[in-house]
Amino acid sequence: MTAVRVYRDDGPLSRALGRTAGGRLPPLPFTVLAAAATGVLLAVGPQPGTRIGPEPAVFAPLVVLLLAGPASDHPHTGRLDWLVPPILRGIEYGYLAVLGDARAVPVPLVYVLLTVLALHHYDAAYRTRQGRRPPRWVRLAGLGWEGRMLFTAFAGLLAPLPFAYAALAAYLGVLSGGESAATWARHGRAGGVMVDLTKKLSEGVGDGPHGEREKRA
Question: In 3D, which of 175, 169, 144, 172 has the Cα closest to residue 9?
């Protein structure tokens, strides 16, 4: 899997559609089309201050999934295919921000969710550049961009949307934050240099001009 495909952060649904298409669909045109469709659906709904319902914005995640998902198995080796992940981030972040604003989700809660997502994506990108890609189970458990969008869209049908935002932020924070901290701690112990400070300090008494004076004393 190429780094660009890792940066996409596809979930199980998008990956399944990608395998069905067999990697034959070019990713960039369909992702741009998905972004345009999301913008249109958000522009016509939801209406501010109303409960989420059968409005066009509810179906935006499904439309994006059907457009961008089938291209997820493409190797993304085209000259401009590196644009696909940031466009998907813009779709996801923009959808969550606009939907939260329209559904009266507290601004701090929207900010927390977007911050958790940004840290999740930054960690995945940094680890990939270091040759330590997140394990497959973490990528699947993270639901992917499509799973998170679908969750927030349809969870509002069963409960107030702030609860969905809070639950998603807490879940991703524990999953990504805990696994990331454990991974870096494990690699730090494996690849770091162990220093015996007590020994170093005792040896340091004889080092340098001050140490020489202490030795002579």
Answer: 144
CB 40 within 8 A of CB 93: no
For residue 46, say if its preceding peptide bond is cis, omega within 30 degrees of 0. yes
d(CA 170, CA 182): 18
Q: N- to C-terminal Cα distance for the chain?
A: 65
Phi, psi torsion values for 79, nearest 5 degrees: -60, -35
- How would you class 191 by CB atoms within 10 Å of its CB: exposed for 0-12, middle for 13-18, buried for 19 or more? exposed
Query: Whose CA is closest to 148, among 128, 120, 123?
Result: 120
User: What is the CA 152 to chain-centroid distance, rounded?
Assistant: 15
Of 25, 52, 54, 39, the C-alpha closest to 87 is: 39
| Whole-number Å distance between alpha carbons of 52 and 138 | 30
Reading phi first (left if > 0) and then psi (alpha if -120 to 50, else beta), residue 25 is in beta
pLDDT in tens, 2-61: 889 999 999 999 999 999 998 889 999 999 999 999 999 888 865 555 544 447 788 899
Separation of alpha carbons 47 and 102, rounded Å: 6
pTM of the full structure: 0.79
